[in-house]
Amino acid sequence: MTNYYFAFCQGDVLLTTEGNIPFGDTPPMSFQPWEHVTDIQADGCCCHVYRLERPIVGKEGLQMMPLRASFDVLSQQEYALAGKAAELIYWDQNTKYCGCCGAPMKLHTPISKRCSECGKEVWPQLATAVIVRITRFKDLRMVEEEMQPQSSNIKSSNAPIEEVLLVHANNFRRPYYGLVAGFVETGETLEEAVRREVREETGIEITDIRYFGSQPWPYPCGLMVGFTAKYVSGDIHLQRSELSKGGWFTRDNMPPIPGKSSIARALIDDWLQAADCRDANT
Ligand SMILES: [Zn+2]
Fold this sequence. Notes:
It contains five helices and 14 strands. It folds into two domains: about 1-95, Nucleoside Triphosphate Pyrophosphohydrolase (Alpha-Beta Complex); about 125-280, Nucleoside Triphosphate Pyrophosphohydrolase, CATH 3.90.79.10. The protein is α+β, with helices and mostly antiparallel strands. The radius of gyration is 23 Å and the shape is globular. Strands 9, 10, 11, 12, 13 and 14 form a six-stranded mixed beta sheet that branches. A five-stranded mixed beta sheet has the order 3-4-1-2-5, covered by helices on one side. A three-stranded antiparallel beta sheet has the order 6-7-8, with no helix packed on it. Bound molecules: zinc ion. Zinc ion binds near residues 100, 103 and 115.
């Protein structure tokens, strides 16, 4: 069984200079000082999870990298395990003491803790968020008006023009456009959360909400659940406390979009590729 060593310092993961998670029979001594958090088994390997007290710099053969950036160098499996390790470290830091009686919590299984006094058990809790790709077909009469007086091509084509709703959230760190997203509230279904978030953040109504896929989002402990939906009615009125920009975009007029590591990108790419398939079939 291969032993992997997932070591983090303030959100940065330790990698070899070749871009791998360190592995071997024993952890490199240069990890120290560290705090061992837990061990998890996965697909025939054992993952040892450590929190480093200080970042490791200047050690031959090792480098530190932000977890999100490690998506570009790690294998899919290693990136997924690194995300899980990061979530467990966050969980460990936030469950040192019992929420009921204040006594110290002790690791009970690799992914659960038990109170040393009252016996209360806790597991890592996920913050579930929904994200939705909303599309609509542009009214051809509007297209003709926009294209006047060169509207002859539009009039001769019956192909509807599809648009996607893209927004820039205030918390985006880069100037790209993504999708409407938000946290699920207590007592809501996922579909209700999608409908509410879209109404709150953009003022529009949607229908045909369909599941697309999901993605662990270890920043710090999320699960993103992706949906597609169709526009029904309403003009866009952005909730300025959440979104700074937003609008409808056609496939040939796309703004910068999120990186490949996100489900937002997967949802957008799926829509762009649907057009490629359609074009190939015509
Ligand atoms: Zn307790």
